[in-house]
Design goal:
Layout lengths: L4 H19 L2 H35 L4 H54 L8 H17 L2 H29 L3 H45 L4 H6 L3 H53 L5 H42 L19 E8 L9 E8 L4 E6 L5 H8 L7 E6 L2 E2 L5 H5 L2 E4 L10 H6 L6 H11 L2 H6 L21 H15 L3 E5 L7 H15 L3 E6 L10 E6 L2 E6 L1 H6 L4 H13 L5
Helix pairs in contact: 1-9, 2-3, 2-5, 2-9, 3-4, 3-5, 4-6, 4-9, 5-9, 6-8, 6-9, 8-9, 13-15
This protein binds adenosine-5'-diphosphate.
């Protein structure tokens, strides 16, 4: 359901004001300084020339120079002095506001990243959530101008109301008929501007999606990590064509927007010309008939222009404020994106843990097909389980469910007899150290990549590096543990080999010291014997902790207590190596005999 626009504006304004109050209240003082530096000189610039001109006219008309010259000099001095001082103060206030503007831009980028990382994993694959994220980013940054962009409009409204009040008094005293002329032209221009804003807002929605798709293609093209695949599959031209076609669509969208706005812009110019013509005619008539002095004439012209522009600025700032708040509100909508998962609060008890899948079935969000059906398995504390099956059998999905990256569709997963939905998310996740097939290392130091959120302790890091067999190589790197991985931000960064990356990921899992460790085929690129070796070594490293090893090969089966064979969306066979190898026509027995050649030398 769509919220009313007023609510959106009110909510966004409250949010902005609260954020400024809590993060940088000095921004309010800067706007007060800006107000003083803009409002006071504006009023003086309207009033002082009247006195200057009237004095000059008197002197030209034959009045004694010695009486009027000091007044002329005083007026001219005040006009110049005030303008100079105001200019300095305005520059100062604007510069300081710009610094804060930048600070708030960074602040919201960080906050948005924080929200993105904290949101439910399944949203990372949800096109609607990704669209909302893109809109939140665009909306809070250049579309709304962020905090300062919104406060600028509030400031404009307040300042122009003050100027409006001032000049209205002056006009009522000297040339009252100017007021309806200005008002009528303003109403017309407001209507035309509102039409333009509507066109712009409609295009924002279209462009936001296009920008995201274009950004994706552009990112793939420029990210060197994709370079291999792009080159080997000769896909650079195809990607460039895709990027070009999105660019063309963007340009078309802009052109369409300009086309729609053109007639409105033409009418705005006509109304402006008519208003100015009528105003000059009226004030000129008053001056010629001597109803006002020449100084008054100048003040009236100046006031009329200020009346119109202050009214125009108020209306356009209100419209702009509405528009900017609607864009910035996308940020609030994203941060309030409903959680897909219930969040429990129960603490996880210390000590041994039993894991139980009870009649678990699962299909991925927005998918019709079950990937897993009626999974029943109990993993006791300290047990080493090998999960095998062909590619696509659902092994990784089984781990994702256990780690609660997704919630089960049917059935329940229990840890120590408690449904995992009831546990505090943070505590529950600390139970696991997982190395996924597509594990990610970051462009941080080696030390940070291993410790991540934990406090880095070099002694322990070296210990796990020794266990994973990466210690010697790691210390041969130019900066040891301080070496940055990848060259994205540090030209002295290093590109680790595939094997070294795996060892780093394994070191990270060991460093976490979690009660349940999981290897999900991070070794898929290796040959079966090398993979067997890594699993064997890892198995001795995890010791008495619960361990789950996933493979579509049988590398890990020999040293595991139990083996679960996934096929046809469920666990087809379950037992020890000896039990399963004996099953007549068993899947495991068949896989084993097909792959046995690899493991002969490994004594499997
Ligand atoms: P395995 O680890 O045994 O190779 P997976 O658990 O990765 O298998 O995948 C099981 C099935 O679920 C496959 O058919 C795969 O295409 C599908 N699948 C995996 N991830 C997703 C996802 N995020 N959304 C929809 N389907 C998925």
């Amino acid at each position: 359901m769509h919220k009313k626009k007023d609510n959106i504006v009110g909510e966004t304004l409250m949010f902005m004001l609260k954020t400024v109050k809590s993060e940088k209240p000095s921004l309010f003082w800067l706007y007060i300084l800006k107000f003083a530096a803009e409002f006071v000189p504006t009023m003086f610039a309207i009033i002082l020339p009247k006195y200057l001109i009237d004095e000059l006219v008197l002197v030209i008309g034959g009045a004694p120079v010695e009486i009027h010259l000091p007044k002329i000099i005083l007026c001219a001095g005040l006009i110049i002095g005030i303008a100079l001082l105001a200019n300095m103060l305005q520059n100062l206030a604007n510069q300081l506001i710009d610094v804060q503007r930048e600070w708030f831009n960074q602040y919201f980028e960080t906050e948005l990243s924080r929200h993105t990382m904290a949101m439910d994993f399944e949203h990372t694959e949800d096109p609607e959530a990704l669209d909302k994220l893109a809109k939140a980013k665009d909306g809070m940054s250049w579309y709304s101008g962020g905090v300062a962009g919104v406060l600028d409009q509030m400031y404009n409204i307040i300042k122009n109301i003050a100027v409006l009040c001032g000049v209205t008094v002056l006009i009522i005293i000297t040339c009252p008929w100017l007021i309806p002329v200005q008002l009528i032209s303003l109403v017309l221009i407001t209507i035309l501007n509102a039409k333009n804003n509507k066109i712009e807002a409609e295009n924002f929605l279209k462009l936001s999606k296009m920008n995201r798709v274009w950004g994706y293609v552009f990112y793939q093209l420029s990210d060197f990590r994709y370079g291999k695949d792009i080159r080997l599959y000769d896909s650079a031209d195809m990607m460039c064509e895709k990027a070009d076609s999105f660019s063309d669509k963007q340009v078309e969208c802009w052109k369409g927007q300009q086309r729609e706005m053109r007639p409105n812009n033409m009418w705005i110019n006509i109304v402006n010309a008519l208003r100015d013509g009528m105003s000059y005619f009226y004030i000129g008539f008053l001056a010629v008939t001597k109803a006002i002095t020449i100084g008054d004439f100048q003040m009236c012209v100046n006031s009329a222009s200020n009346l119109y522009w202050s009214l125009y600025n108020i209306v356009s700032s209100v419209q702009e404020l509405h528009k900017r708040c609607s864009y910035a509100h996308r940020y609030l909508e994203f941060t309030a994106y409903p959680a897909a998962m219930e969040k429990g609060t129960k603490p996880v008890k210390n000590g041994e843990h039993t894991i139980e899948f009870s009649h678990v079935s699962f299909k991925y969000p927005r998918s019709e097909n079950y990937v897993l059906r009626d999974i029943n398995i109990t993993i006791k504390s300290g047990e080493h389980l090998s999960v095998v099956g062909l590619n696509g059998a659902g092994k990784t999905t089984f781990i994702k469910l256990l780690c609660r990256l997704y919630d089960v569709t049917e059935g329940e997963i229990l840890v120590d007899g408690v449904n995992i939905k009831e546990y505090s998310e943070e505590e529950y996740r600390r139970l696991f150290a997982v190395v996924f097939q597509d594990f990610q290392l970051f462009a941080f130091s080696l030390r940070e990549n291993i410790a991540l959120a934990d406090t880095p302790d070099d002694e322990r890091i070296n210990e796990v590096l020794k266990l994973s067999g990466f210690y010697d190589d790691a210390h041969k790197l130019e900066h040891g543990l301080d070496t940055t991985l990848f060259k994205s931000f540090d030209e002295k960064g290093t590109e680790l080999s595939g094997g070294q990356q795996q060892k780093t990921a394994i070191s990270r899992a060991l460093y976490r010291n979690a009660p349940v460790v999981i290897l999900d085929e991070p070794t898929a690129a290796l040959d079966p014997v090398a993979e067997y070796e890594i699993y064997r070594q890892f198995n001795s490293l995890v010791g008495g902790r619960t361990a789950i090893y996933i493979s579509h090969r049988l590398s890990s089966c020999k040293f595991c207590d139990r083996i679960a064979v996934f096929a046809d969306d469920t666990i087809k066979e379950y037992g020890t190596h000896d039990e399963l190898a004996e099953l007549p026509n068993g899947i495991y027995a068949e896989m084993f005999s097909a792959q046995a050649q690899y493991y002969v030398n490994c004594n499997v």
